Structure prediction request, 153 residues.
Amino acid sequence: MREQATEALGGDVTVEEWESRLLHEVRRPAPGCCVRVTRLRMDPSDVDNGMDVLQTSVVPATEVLDGFCGISLWANARTGRAVSAVVYDSAESIAATRGSAARLRAASAAKSHATIEAVDEFAVLWTSWDRRLPPQGTQVPMQAEDARHSVGA
Prediction:
């Protein structure tokens, strides 16, 4: 399947192993939701501390934000890389939380000795709960922008 995807999309395929550290949901995401993905890098010896900071500081502060659906955390302890994905119920909700999320990100990165590599936002087009892919050509508007929106770290 990787070869087919590479052929269809072009480019290179990289396979990495990540450990799921947390999945916390207050409601299931659905098409029309949006997700903010933050990529972090830290010394591999700081990964456990970094995940503790995210679980004890970021999760409680994030789950009270309007439109919050859930958060997932993954880490690669060998490389010191981590990813968080926070899902909101709409493009309006994710836009409204950008400022508070940026402040929380900066504080938690400093506390966990992490460097923020990237912050991106995406529209959710389908979820595993849908059990089906959206029809080809389906468009989900996200404030008249592309479905992908880079946010300053």
